[in-house]
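Quick illustration, no need to memorize.
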Amino acid sequence: MNFDVHSLPSPCYIVDEALLIKNLEKLKSVIDQTGCKILLAQKGFSMFSVYPLIGKYLDGVTSSSLWEARLGKEEMGKEVHTYSPAFSETDFDEILEVSDHIVFNSFHQLRKFKDKVQGYPKKVEIGIRINPEYSEVETAIYDPCALGSRLGVRLANFEPDQLDDIDGLHFHTMCEQNSDVLERTVKVVDEKFGKYLKGMKWLNFGGGHHITRQDYDIDKLVQSIIYMRDKYDLEIYLEPGEAIALNTGYLVATVLDIVESQIPAAILDTSAACHMPDVLEMPYRPGIINAGNPNEKSYTYRLGGPTCLAGDIIGDYSFDEPLKAGDKLVFTDMAHYTMVKNNTFNGVNLPAIVLNTVDEGVKVVKEFGYEDFRNRLS
């Protein structure tokens, strides 16, 4: 780290611009090798102050709601792809206004809205999400192809007679996985749905591609893209979320108190429940700079948040020296699925958002206060 944690508001998320650029350059290399288009999945990372930077490398955004679509349109101004398990009539006219692609989750939704899409003054392309019923995701809550999944059309429910209204197909079956999983998935998609791709304009490989991870096999990704691109004369889209912000951010926290117990507890100004919900949902154990696993170093603590939730526990970590009130802890890989999922349970404030820029150093982008908490309520 080339910044002083003691000079920052606590807690705060800090995104490192140089690390973000490193990821974007790797993604751009895939675009250059294959001619594919890569989109920022805003559900994973929506720090719109860096959208102009991301837009220099990528082709646009994907969104899961009207507000995400608006954010992408207004802050990046490139392609906007919108998918939802179901669109409401209330939002649909505005979604049409800000979207370039709309992907439906069912043929029923397609029939319900296609006249509006086709009658709209600008061209908005239409897609259908498919469920190839093949996934290697181990955590059930993130498996989009689990038995009884509500996400995508299975082959048994596919309606070939509706294809005249469809520009492309979309599948999303992965989560934090390498390209060998994509390679196997593409084979299944090709076997089940390949005959329906003939004459279509595009195929969207969805997200879950950990392209910027150190051990990721980019060559195999390139091969999968080129295979489907050339076989069916398609434009290929990818929409990674984590890969864009992977290992680019930190969460700076402060120790508030030490509570003696069977395992000494360090209470932080940072909450798992409020500020890093994946710790409880995934479950996920974030790294901390200069900390180790329980009992690996001399002093082990259970780190917890300041809320009244008994399970607001980040995890057990060990340190070379005893922790004390005022100590700073720096959690790693905290850019994605943090800012987009945080909340103000118990009236706990949200972390400030900080950007460590290449040219100007550390800049506080946004700080939150009572009004942000109050204005969510009635």
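The first strand starts at residue 12 and ends at 16.
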